[in-house]
């Protein structure tokens, strides 16, 4: 190029300055996103110095996760109004991604806490503990057979996805009146623990106070073993057990291979005592 000045760069020079590969510039030219200022008949291509500004715009939009086609469309029709509209939508998207990451972190933290609790606690031994209040997202179980029960639990899992503070596996609730009748496999509610209180009729509080709890390995889909051991332990100490018995599933299919290695924490509030 006879009239070439210091304001123009070859493809190689331009790529080195911008820290990209020559192939990137060729690709951008091919799709019509970013082309050289000059193309000579002999195939030489030259970029004008101020094209660096446009390229930096492309890089900035790529960092925001915009695909090249969207970047191309925006650059061809850019305006302050279009930019504000685009940034508003991008900000909402980032907020959704942040919330998703927070949810993932809650899940990880809860699963780690569950495994740590199982490692520390004696298995199949009832004990008295002091519990802080917790909030539970609950769903009623009205089915009387396993098939429909599974469907209702699946619906609960879908429901909990609407709540940003939901943590961990699904727990279940049995009633003392059923257990006293020898009905050990009847669950009246399932629940998911929430990080904090939520405004919903489906949220109930598990009150703070004293609970007898037992970590039970070898989940048999009924409460007979833990119920009998906890009841005996409570009677020996003069405690009256509450109406709701809770099962927090701590080790399940996510961490162990079979039901025989599942671990649940069975817990019931108590009062009285000697």
From TrEMBL:
Residues 8-77 form the HTH merR-type domain. It comes from the Bacteria. InterPro entries: DNA-bd_dom_put_sf, MerR-type_HTH_dom, MerR_fam, Reg_factor_effector_dom_sf. It holds the Pfam family MerR_1. PROSITE patterns: HTH_MERR_1, HTH_MERR_2. The keyword Ribosomal protein does not apply. Residues 84-111 form a coiled coil. The keyword Manganese does not apply. SUPFAM superfamilies: Probable bacterial effector-binding domain (SSF55136), Putative DNA-binding domain (SSF46955). Keywords: Coiled coil, DNA-binding. PANTHER family: MULTIDRUG-EFFLUX TRANSPORTER 2 REGULATOR, REDOX-CYCLING DRUG-SENSING TRANSCRIPTIONAL ACTIVATOR SOXR. This is MerR family transcriptional regulator. It comes from Enterocloster hominis (ex Hitch et al. 2024).
């Amino acid at each position: 190029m006879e009239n070439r000045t210091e304001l123009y760069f070859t493809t190689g020079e331009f790529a080195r300055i911008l820290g990209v590969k020559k192939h990137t510039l060729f690709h951008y030219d091919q799709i019509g996103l970013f082309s050289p200022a000059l193309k000579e008949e002999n195939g030489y291509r030259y970029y004008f110095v101020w094209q660096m500004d446009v390229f930096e715009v492309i890089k900035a939009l790529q960092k925001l996760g915009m695909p090249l086609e969207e970047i191309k469309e925006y650059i061809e029709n850019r305006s302050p109004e279009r930019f504000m509209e685009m940034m508003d939508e991008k900000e909402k998207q980032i907020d959704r991604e942040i919330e998703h990451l927070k949810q993932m972190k809650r899940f990880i933290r809860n699963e780690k806490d569950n495994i740590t609790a199982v490692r520390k606690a004696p298995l199949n031994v009832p004990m008295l503990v002091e519990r802080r209040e917790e909030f539970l997202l609950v769903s009623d179980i009205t089915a009387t057979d396993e098939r429909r029960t599974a469907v209702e639990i699946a619906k609960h899992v879908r429901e909990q996805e609407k709540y940003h503070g939901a943590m961990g596996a699904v727990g279940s609730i049995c009633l003392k009146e059923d257990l006293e009748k020898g009905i050990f496999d009847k669950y009246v509610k399932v629940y998911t623990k929430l990080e904090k209180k939520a405004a919903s009729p489906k949220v109930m509080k598990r009150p703070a106070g004293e609970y007898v709890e037992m970590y039970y390995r070898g989940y048999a889909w009924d409460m007979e073993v833990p119920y009998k051991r906890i009841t005996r332990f409570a009677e020996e100490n003069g405690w009256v057990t509450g109406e709701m018995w809770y099962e927090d599933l701590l080790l399940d299919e996510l961490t162990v291979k079979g039901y025989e290695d599942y671990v649940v924490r069975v817990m019931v509030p108590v009062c009285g005592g000697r």
